[in-house]
Amino acid sequence: MNQRTITAAKILAALGIVAAVAGFILDSGHSVHPLSRIGMFEARAQAVKSAKPIFIDVSASWCPPCRKMESTVFTNDTVKNYLDEHFIINQVDANDQTQNALLEDSLGVDELPTMIVLRPDGIEWKRHSGSFDAKGFIAWMNDPTDAFMLRWPPANAAFEAASQRQKPCLILWVQKQKDLTPAYALFRSPQMQALCNYDVVPTILVDNQQHFSATLVQLTGNNNAIAPASRSIVLALPGGKLIRQISLDGEFGYNPNKLLDTLHTLLTQKAGS
Amino acid sequence: MNPALKKLFAVEMRRLWTIPMIVLSIVMLPLGLPFSPIIATLINRANHGAVPVLNLSESVNAIFGALSLYGAMFFSAGIVGGEVKNGWMRSVLSRPITRQWFLAVKMAAVVLSVFCTIILVAIILLGVSAAMMHAMPAVHPLQLAQILLGSLGQIVTYVAIATVFSCFFPGNFNLIALFLWEILGGAATILVQKFLWNNKWMFILDDLLFPHRLTGFADSVLQNNFASSDLLWGTASLALFLAGCFWFVNVIQVDKTAD
User: Fold this and answer.
1) B225·A75 Cβ contact <8 A
2) Which residues of B sit within 8 Å Cβ distance of A?
3) Is the pTM of the predicted complex or chain greater than 0.80?
4) Domain ranges, residue A178
5) Residue A19 falls inside a structural domain
6) What's the CA gap between A112 and B8, in Å, rounded?
7) Model pLDDT for residues A78-133, shown as the tens digit of each residue
8) How many Å apart are CA B28 and CA B26, to the nearest integer?
């Protein structure tokens, strides 16, 4: 064996190990993230106060795609300004052992990096697992339907507003979080957005039937039974005068035109009466 | 530099730049086309109606990102295994040249060839783009230098991996091995991210075995960052694969000729 070649291999291996150890130390000591770490409690409090949605980034210093996102996306000025302007930001460090329960149980994270958008009332709006480049991230965040629906007030605020404005409250009610995403498609059309902006006060509730019925009775004073459905649109008038439930499970499915026609008919009837 | 090594380097360059290699280099040009500013700008224009911008650093980074692996694959095919098979390695080692210098010179010739070919492709594409767009590219020398450094490091890493494989596989089979290694790396990365996402040691192992951190470093430079972690992990992986090259080239049987 050529001793010099062996020595060259050993020197290179030593250099590699030194670089790896330096990288490991750098990653372990890495605590400065471009996004703020305010904690979930504080984030929720700020979101309620400012009526802004929450953006959560779950990442770890030792995860290469997370580091790539950190160095190429979250330091991008356009992204930073957009997030600062529209969201309450909370970065969750997966390296932090105290956060494990939050990550796995509450947020249901099973991949890094994961980005989650919560409505101001805490309902999960959307999530993405895996990395983005800056353009892809902005395209994902800047969905026009999101911008429209994220402004919908929480249920109690919506009922108050409906009561003041004497308009029906349109509740998009789903029993499970996963049923929300397909329901968004119903609200993409300009006609539906105009209806939501001018004719009703829209809101979203994610709750099981029992809780939802109880909430509805509490908010409207109406004890009409809510039919079993995994996802519905409920039109409720404060004072309990009108409750109409349109189930999205059956004939309506997710047909935006049919839903729009039905809502127009109901609202015309209500105006007539 | 030792005159024998200089001569060996010149010979290696001549042996690398055969007619098929020149043809292959020309074929690399259309491969880089989708990343050239012409296409990117046309797409950008179609999507947003925006004013075309010729970003030199971004284009160079994209072209290197697209072509580095293919360049390294083709130029380092049979870098050791092929030379053992055709008897060239035995012939060189019978002169006062050690295995370490033989390997170093061969790798230097391959890396230089890949790097220069991609630079040439980039110059042609950018030149055509600038002429068509009637725009001068905006040059940020420091940023460009850092991107070229990261890209060069990634090319050396690919060549080192190909060389390690070439110590085990006969002839040009290291080309296929490197390609499969990259596919395996992609699958392993998805697996780690999906199922072992809270195990940092698996991330580190994935990073060292299937290295792309120097490309990540170049990407971060584009965003005006200096991702020192990427640079360190990329260097670690590069040094370990280079160590593997020098170790394995020392233990292979040079006399194992085809005949």
Assistant:
1) yes
2) 98-100, 103, 193-194, 197-198, 200, 203-204, 206-208, 212-213, 216, 219-220, 222-225, 227-230, 232-233, 235-240, 242-247, 249-251
3) no
4) 148-272
5) no
6) 48
7) 888 888 888 899 888 877 766 666 666 677 787 888 999 988 888 888 888 888 88
8) 5
